[in-house]
Amino acid sequence: VSGIVGPIRRLGTAIIAGEKATGYLVTIDVKRAIAESSVPSDQFNFEGLLSHGVTTFPEQVWLNSRGEFQKLQYSTQPTVGGTITETELFSYSARTFSVTPPPAADTKRVANVEDAYDLAYSLPQGR
Question: Is the four-CA dihedral 46, 47, 49, 55 of positive or negative sign?
């Protein structure tokens, strides 16, 4: 996890996606996360948060017994209003699968991260 600052608090254990996991509460510094991350999609998300006034946020990090992510979850309130909540659940298996991109008519190209966030906020609930 990129951008962790301050103390890390242990939350306990839980069964997540069928595996025992240990949870931790961390604080993410958005500018530090941008600088430390090597994953373009993560950098894009952090830049979007920063452009909407989010400079730090708490995140729950749940690790399985192999030290792999089992769940990541955060909730924050950008300056444009509303609440952003993201939960990522991880599952590990040897199964392969294929992903088909949506039809071009169902997509929209955006020029920058601010436009992407503005588009996301303009969609109807559940889209």
Answer: positive
Does residue 57 sit in helix, strand or coil? strand
Structure tokens at 19: 């595996």
The span from the CA of 27 to the CA of 53, in Å, is 16
- 35: helix, strand or coil: helix
CA 98 to the chain's CA centroid:
23
pLDDT tens track for 61-99: 999 999 999 999 998 888 888 888 889 888 876 667 788
Helix (H, G, I), strand (E, B) or coil at 78: coil
Please state the φ and ψ torsions of residue 73, each to the nearest 5 degrees: -150, 135
Across 37-66, b (16+ Cβ under 10 Å) vs e yields beeeebbebbbbbbbbebebbebbbbbbee
pTM, 2 dp: 0.68
Alpha helix stretches (DSSP H) within the chain: 30-36, 40-51, 113-122
